[in-house]
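Table 4 source record.
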Amino acid sequence: MKQNTGKATGPVSVSLFGMMTSLSAALDLINPALNDHHKLTCYIACSIAGELDMPENEYNDMFMAAVLHDIGAIAVADRLKLLEYEEKSPHLHAELGKILVSGFPPFAGFAPIIQFHHVDWNDGEGQQFQGIDVPEASHIIHLADRVAVLIDKSKPVFSQVEEIRQIISDSEGSRFVPAFVEAFMTVSRKEAFWLDMYFAPLDKKLNDLSRLPEIKLDLDDLAELSRFFAIIIDTRSSFTAFHTSGVAACSRELAELCGMSPTDCQKVLIAGYLHDLGKLAVPNEILEKNGKLNLEEWRVIQAHTYHTQRILESIEGIEEIADWASHHHESLSGDGYPFRLAEEELPLGSRIVMVADIFTALTEDRPYRKGMKRDEIEKIFEELLAGNKVDAGIVNILHTNYARVDRVCKEAQSKSSVNVSEFWEKSQQSVELIDSEAATG
């Protein structure tokens, strides 16, 4: 087999801050109206918390929660306008966020902050919600979230400042904690507070505001965090609910069978977990369409690997993984998308994820067909090989070890189904409620 491994590989060291801001950027892809919403909310919340001299441990939990606060809206974002987040079932999407975040043990500590970030103060009654204490950080994010929603970047910044400040002031005591409103009114008197939201690089501002310890992730840490990313991706649509976990497991198994080093096998696993990160930009009606896509819809699909590359390339230390993840729709013949890379530009890691993605997709049920049998899958790979689309050596290894690879893929998908079952049950409640409200006007 021709093994184009590219540059020398080795262990990685990645910043937790970089990974989190990248996930935040990925979440904003779900709805164009969400552009920078999570980062804006975090910036505003940190500004308020700084004015309040919030203790560092609470501040850090609030920072992480703010960056991910609307993560639970993944399954319903297509049905919601941004301003409706606080009007239609806000606690359901906050509960969904708690479920997702709780599934990753290092994040479980700030899950309650996300769970209660839409609880109104209600003259003190909001200290608890359904008999559970509401963290102060939830109330700060609630206020910051509202300010972020009210900002209209199509208008001059200072033309709306006083109106926003008045809206927040009028909600003191009813929606928002009075002391937090006072802190907001103090920080929002500074012109720079508003100008930064329009003109400063938000990642740099958040880095300045962050008090997170300088946590570096090794490959094992990165694999666990990437698995969490994969769960987020897979909850986007019930029709591709376990695709990412299957691709990751299949990629790692093929990498091992191809003779890659343990380090590179782990990198391929991570690339598999992250390969469809850009699909968060694809609307559900396209992901779940029961029929052939039209040209416009196909163009949207083609852009998803570009978004994967754009998000991941900003993370220092995973450049190689970013390439392997975002090349899975390229082709050895040079007519893949979106980069039209030539055969010599596609390293072994990219080729493995490419084959793993195709194999996993063919085995899965989709809206327009049932999962394929082995003979059908092998026939499709023969056609791809005839067109010089995929690596013959990797495909041969897949065919030789078909039962083993298929078993590993299905076991990973079965395990993933346990992780997201509660999310899907509650997200379906949210979708049904939103749709019923829309139907009744």
